[in-house]
Amino acid sequence: MRGLYIGRFQPYHLGHQAVLEEIAREVDEIVIVIGSAQESHGPENPFTSGERMEMIYAALGKGELRKRCIVTTLQDINRNSLWVSHLQSMVPCFDLVYSNNPLVIRLFSEAGVEVKKPPLYQRDVYSGSAIRVLMREGGDWERLVPPAVAGFIQEINGVERLCQVSKSDSASSADSAMHSSKETDF
Ligand code: NAD
C-alpha cells in the first residue's frame, strides 16, 4: 500500500515529520510530493524545490523510513479542476492521500481518491508561516524543524534570503528611507 503526502514544505518542519511518521505506521511506501515546485525566493516560498528536497532527505536520515519514501516535485497549474489528473500524470502511483489542506482534500475527494486527515500537531506552532515569521523576526525557529533541516537552512543562508526577499524596495535604501519619512501610509 502506497500513500501520498503533498506539501509546500516552506520549510519542512516537525509537524510535517510527525505526519510522515504517522503515515509510515499505516502504509508500506510514501510518495512525498513537493508542491509549488516552481516557487522560490519569495516571502511565502523562500526555498527552491531542490532545497526543500534536501531538507526532507536530511530529516529522513539514512534509516528505514528513508528507504520507504519516494520524494518528487510538482509544479502548480492554473486550473484546480485539472490538478489531480496533472498530479497523477507526473508522480508515481499511489493508493490514498494524506492531507489536512481543505483544497487538496476537496480536489482528491471529487476525483474519487481516498483521503485521510492525519492528526494535527500543534498546528499554530508547527506551521510554515509561523516559522517564517520567527525567521524574519530573529526568533527561535530552529527548535521547530528537525536539527538537520536547521543546519541545512543555516548552510544556505536561508534566513538572510528570506529577510531580503521580504523587504520592499522602499525600505532598501537610505535615500528612500528619507523620502518615506514624508509619506503618510507608514
Ligand atoms: P504545507 O507545507 O503547508 O502542508 C503540507 C501538509 O502538512 C498539509 O496537509 C498540512 O495540512 C499538513 N501540516 C502542516 N503542518 C501540520 C501540523 N503541525 N500538524 C499536522 N499536519 C500539518 O503545504 P500545502 O500548502 O498544504 O501544500 C499543498 C500543495 O498543493 C501546494 O504546493 C499547492 O500549490 C498544491 N496545490 C496546487 C493546486 C494547483 O496547482 N491548481 C491545487 C491544489 C493544491
> Compounds present?
nicotinamide-adenine-dinucleotide
Strand content: 5-15%
The major beta sheet can be summarized as: 5 strands, parallel
Overall shape: it is globular
Structural class: alpha/beta
Tell me, rounded to a whole number, the average pLDDT: 91
Read across the widest sheet, the strand sequence of neighbours is: 3-2-1-4-5
Number of distinct helices: 9
In sequence order, what are the helices and strands, one letter per element?
Answer: EHEHHEHEHEHHHH
Short description:
The chain has 186 residues and is α/β, with parallel strands linked by helices. Helix content is 44%, strand content 12%.
Describe this structure as you would to a colleague.
Helix 2 (49-60) runs antiparallel to helix 7 (147-155). Mean pLDDT is 91; it is low at 173-186. The protein has 186 residues and is of the alpha/beta class. Strand 4 (96-98), helix 5 and strand 5 form a beta-alpha-beta unit. It has nine helices and five strands. Strands 3-2-1-4-5 form a five-stranded parallel sheet. It is globular. The protein has helices at 14-26, 49-60, 64-67, 83-90, 102-110, 128-137, 147-155, 158-166, 174-180; strands spanning 2-7, 29-34, 69-73, 96-98, 115-116. Residues 6-9, 15-16, 19, 35-36, 76-77, 80, 83, 99-101, 103-104, 107, 118, 120-123, 126-128 line the site of nicotinamide-adenine-dinucleotide. The site of nicotinamide-adenine-dinucleotide (NAD) has 27 residues, from strand 1, helix 1 and helix 5.
